[in-house]
Amino acid sequence: MRLLLVPLVLVLLVVGLSYTLFLLANLRSGHLARMRREPGGAALPIARGLLAALAEQVLLIGTYPLGWLSQRERRTGGPMVLLVHGLYHNRAAWFLFRRRLARAGYADVRFFSYNSFTRDFESLCRELSERILDLAAEADAPVALIGHSLGGLLLRAAVCDERLRGRAACLLTLGAPHRGSTLARLAMGGLGRSLWPDTPLMRGLAVLREPSDLPRLALVSPVDNMVLPAENLLPPAGWEVREVAPMSHVAMLYHPEPARLAVEFLEQNLPR
Fold first, then answer.
1. pLDDT digit string, tens, across residues 195-251
2. What are the backbone dihedrals phi and psi of residue 219, each rounded to the nearest 5 degrees, phi first?
3. Which of 91, 173, 200, 232 is the most buried (most CB within 10 A)?
């Protein structure tokens, strides 16, 4: 019983602290005031976010070990999709999302995994660029790119590599901190702390020259509890932005709506 109490306390601590900081950051930014003016107000969406966060943490802890298992990649035919997880996660974060893509006809799904504690953004970006080049050569076609949270920022930087011109079909981000997050002050490790809004990394991302002909879509939740304040979810000019139903940051990986919107985006830009 005591062993079960440890993860339970951890879940409650993470969810409670993150949503307390969500309220404080978005009260100052005016986001909560805008939510209150929406039909139904702010209380119900925030409650939905809290419940989603509790469920998401249980799923995350329960499935995380699956990411340590070795996986054999093989070409299945059809379009190829590359998934890049966020900070402190591994490829197991995508287990439901990948299944939903496969059911929609996108079965050739690959992953880019990394250690959040031992790597820096620049080296990961270079490695990711090479990974995309290799996959595009294997598929003999452009690759669709999908990133959650930090994974979205890594993909944004990677597609600016001139060698990837014509090798990326489209770019979708889920809950990416496009302008950083004030929650980064509590992050463990240099990679996490580099996501503070005014770091050299975030200033560099703000002036990236992204390929203007690359279809780009950012999915955002109005009650994201990790990217603070909410305005920091917004990507630079040239992106399409879609707001999903109220859900927590990690729940975007497990909720069916982001996956459905991802499939729609792929169908528009990566025909089967």
1. 999 999 999 999 999 999 999 999 999 999 999 999 999 999 999 999 999 999 999
2. -95, 130
3. 173
